[in-house]
Design goal:
Layout: H1 3-10, H2 17-31, H3 37-47, H4 56-68, E1 72-75, E2 78-82, H5 86-95, H6 98-109, H7 116-128, E3 136-137, H8 141-147, E4 151-157, H9 164-173, H10 175-185, H11 189-198, H12 204-224, H13 236-243, H14 252-257, H15 264-281, H16 284-308, H17 317-325, H18 337-344, E5 353-360, H19 366-384, E6 391-399, H20 412-429, H21 432-435, E7 452-456, H22 468-476, E8 483-486, H23 493-506, E9 514-517, H24 519-522, H25 525-532, E10 536-539, H26 540-554, H27 561-579, H28 587-595, H29 601-604, H30 619-628, H31 632-642, H32 644-650, E11 653-656, H33 663-680, E12 683-686, H34 688-694, H35 705-708, H36 711-714, E13 719-722, H37 734-746, H38 753-770
Parallel strand pairs: 2-3, 4-5, 5-6, 6-7, 8-9, 9-12, 12-13
Antiparallel strand pairs: 1-2, 10-11
Helix pairs in contact: 1-16, 2-3, 4-6, 6-7, 6-15, 7-15, 9-10, 10-12, 11-17, 12-13, 12-16, 15-16, 18-19, 19-20, 20-22, 23-33, 26-27, 28-31, 37-38
């Protein structure tokens, strides 16, 4: 993404080839800041040799092809990515959406585009009809997918799944709707932060102007293919003149060639191919003008890609959250049909997925939830016209939100909303007629309306304890299928491990329940320490909670007697710093107060049955709390934990190192949690690309799945299933997530093909066994 050149184009400043080539180096430096310039220049010279690439037109034709040919493998008209460079290809997609790269390869491997209909059918449709996400080429992998009628995706958010090239078409067809969506959320701090971070358009109006310019450029490029002396869209008047007669929701190339039954993606791919041909065959004068327009158009596309796909420089959940909050993809995701086709793949006779366990956020009333599910169902029925083997199950995920010091106890507002949402869900799930699987002439296979409960969003916003009363309410009313996003992003690896433990204990997970991500359980503590540093800042209260957690897990282990005493002393000192030293609390009282967080705090602190008649009153919860018989001192700690004045002490940042809780101790805690998961038969949902983008990993090669498959975890017999998470945000799909695992396992011959395929088969089998029904 060359922001400087885009700015020059937008302001009608002259851009020379030397400027573009210099900026290629500077942009490469932003991606690899630790590499000396001479290495970067050598890399660019390798891709752009001076004898063949000496102008912008060459860059867009030969230069682009020289880049993409190193990745793509053709097989019977279908394109695949070489498995040896698949991880690098996925990194490339964060910079450039794949449709352009596919078009470049198609054109330069077969330039005979005279018969448009045949060319589309032979090449374009096979690779771009519904999706431009290419799979890697792996021996027998596609046969395995076909034999199993797709693999099982047990963790995908339906909102967040649309890929860039699809969003781009919607943005060009409806730029004003995109502006309205972006304007509605532009006051959000994280949305503003992303906007300033990427520094491409200053506000929703400038975003709209960029999209209007791109619309005009697209029509200019299509029209200029066989004409000359057209006005370049460099003024508002010319932009308006180009766009005033465009047909909404239709690619202008459709009209040009009178194309029928051709998708927007196919039209865009054909347009790129036409432009490559035009740039190759025309005179220099016309070529220069078209190359400039094409480059301008692609830079705007690249800028949108930066806002909807997590970039390799955007590590961590908060960077991911900025993408989910900016709402640029939300217009494309108002309907569901195209999304299911995209996720299924371009082969109508074979779906990428067998089971799709789609996550959606519940509304506040039964009517709203029912309406939302009906929208999903309508999209599914449209998709099922083409494919009758796949199955859709729905999981409702609550959203974690921050608490404020104004609330009388932690997350008061969120707890109240969860109570309302849970009762709305129960009113539907307890309706036998509503829960019956709807049938239709189109749908011969059962469609599960709602099969499970989840909680998602940033772990920094709300801990598992907040959701415990709601999960218990649902469980006590017959719901059995639960999962929870946890151990995904954390300030300290022990914080992530504690959150996993609290999920198991506070949410009372049972056999067959699942945990999403659990990255803290898999990441190497040594690698985490190397990437994060010797010391980190963490909230004082979070740190003391981590120490309490470690103490509780290891207190009976005689091998850690000295370490446990040091941890005990640190806990008591920090408790005094947070809550004051007017009371001296025993470790039993401190642990009991920590474990009591699973209960509704409002009920815990009520003195009588009459006082307990609050909005969220639950008879079973109240009786369980009374049976716990908390001591006066335990209640004192609980009260102080929720008191806003003490919470400010809790949130003070302190600097900690690895002396008290070192790498060997962290490994011990990981093994302890793994044994608990095995004993309780709790399943882990692994999401490779999401973990790489959000975590501390630099590539898929480092992902912990390979460690989970080694002896130390085979002994614990962890049950693993696979998901794609937010497939559009990560430019992936479930086929490629399984393929990523295969490539990871076989990289540098760590595992033989047959062994790796057996792992893939077992993971998919787990998906069949542990899917929610």
């Amino acid at each position: 993404m060359d922001k400087q050149t885009l700015d020059d184009y937008e302001n009608n400043r002259q851009v020379e080839w030397k400027d573009i080539k210099r900026r290629l180096l500077l942009n490469e430096r932003l991606v690899n800041p630790h590499i000396p310039d001479h290495f970067l220049r050598a890399t660019i010279d390798n891709y752009l040799p001076n004898e063949s690439v000496c102008c912008l037109s060459d860059l867009l034709t030969l230069g682009l092809y020289s880049l993409v040919e190193k990745y793509i493998i053709p097989q019977n008209g279908k394109l695949y990515i070489s498995k040896d460079v698949f991880s690098k290809w996925q990194e490339l997609l964060t910079f450039c959406p794949p449709l352009l790269l596919i078009a470049s390869y198609l054109y330069y491997t077969d330039k005979d585009v005279a018969d448009i209909t045949n060319y589309i059918e032979t090449y374009i449709s096979k690779n771009t009809r519904y999706t431009a996400i290419l799979p890697p080429y792996i021996d027998n992998f596609e046969t395995f997918i076909g034999d199993n009628k797709g693999v099982n995706d047990l963790h995908i958010h339906l909102n967040g799944s649309t890929e860039t090239d699809v969003i781009w078409q919607d943005a060009l067809n409806y730029p004003n709707k995109i502006r309205k969506k972006y304007r509605a959320v532009f006051g959000n701090d994280l949305v503003i932060e992303q906007n300033e971070q990427e520094c491409i358009f200053k506000d929703p109006n400038q975003l709209y102007e960029l999209l209007e310019r791109a619309r005009a450029l697209r029509l200019y490029l299509i029209t200029a293919i066989n004409r000359s002396n057209l006005p370049y869209p460099n003024t508002d008047a010319v932009v308006f003149d180009y766009t005033k007669n465009l047909i909404r929701d239709e690619h202008p190339l459709k009209t040009r060639y009178a194309l029928k039954d051709v998708t927007e993606l196919e039209c865009e791919c054909l347009m790129y191919i036409n432009l490559f041909q035009t740039l190759e065959q025309n005179s220099n004068d016309k070529k220069t003008e078209i190359a400039k327009a094409f480059h301008h158009y692609l830079l705007i596309l690249g800028s949108i890609n930066r806002f909807v796909v997590q970039q390799i420089h955007q590590n961590g959940f908060q960077q991911f959250q900025k993408i989910t909050l900016n709402d640029i993809r939300s217009f494309s995701e108002e309907k569901y049909g195209k999304r299911f086709s995209q996720l299924s793949g371009n082969n109508n006779s074979m779906s990428n997925f067998n089971t799709l366990e789609g996550r959606f956020a519940p509304k506040m009333t039964p009517k709203e939830i029912d309406s939302h599910i009906n929208k999903i169902r309508l999209g599914w029925y449209g998709f099922k016209n083409d494919n009758n083997s796949a199955e859709l199950n729905l999981v409702s995920h609550f959203i974690k939100k921050r608490s404020s010091y104004q609330e009388k106890y932690r997350h008061e507002e969120l707890r109240n909303n969860l109570w309302i949402q849970a009762n709305a869900i129960l009113s539907l799930m307890q309706d036998e007629e509503w829960m019956k699987y709807p049938k239709s002439d189109i749908e011969k296979k059962s469609f599960h309306k709602l099969v499970g409960i989840d909680a998602a969003a940033s772990e920094f916003d709300a801990p598992p304890e907040v959701f415990a009363p709601t999960y218990r309410l649902l469980r006590n009313n017959g719901v059995r299928n639960f999962t929870y996003h946890v151990g995904e992003d954390f300030s300290h690896i022990i914080s992530g491990l504690r959150a996993i433990y609290e999920t198991i204990e506070f949410l009372e997970f049972e056999s067959g329940n699942r945990i999403g991500h659990a990255t803290a359980l898999g990441v190497s503590p040594q690698l985490w320490k190397e990437r994060i540093g010797e010391k980190i800042y963490i909230r004082r209260g979070e740190w003391v909670d981590n120490l309490i957690f470690v103490y509780e897990l290891l207190k009976s282990n005689c091998c850690y007697t000295i370490k446990i005493n040091d941890i005990k002393n640190a806990i008591q000192n920090e408790i005094c710093n947070i809550y004051g030293d007017s009371f001296e609390y025993s470790m039993d009282e401190i642990i009991a107060a920590w474990k009591s967080r699973k209960w509704d705090p409002e009920l815990v602190l009520c003195e009588s049955y009459t006082d307990a008649q609050v909005q969220n009153f639950n008879e079973l919860e109240w009786k369980s709390i009374q049976n716990s018989k908390f001591s006066t001192k335990v209640k004192e700690i609980i009260r102080k934990y929720h008191d806003p004045s003490f919470r400010k002490n809790y949130d003070v940042m302190i600097l900690v190192d690895f002396k008290l809780i070192d790498v060997p101790l962290i490994k011990r805690i990981q093994s302890k949690i793994a044994r608990i998961l095995k004993k309780k038969n709790i399943i882990i949902e692994t999401l490779p690309t999401s973990n790489v983008r959000i975590g501390i990993y630099k590539s898929h090669i480092e992902h912990h799945i390979k460690d989970w498959m080694k002896v130390r975890f085979f002994k614990n017999n962890l049950k693993i299933v696979v998901g794609s998470d937010d497939a559009g945000v990560f430019a992936s799909n479930i086929y490629n997530e399984y393929a990523n695992i295969y490539c990871n396992l076989t990289y540098n011959d760590r595992m033989r093909h047959n062994e790796a395929m057996k792992v893939i088969e077992n993971l998919n089998k787990n998906g069949r066994i542990y899917k929610f029904t």
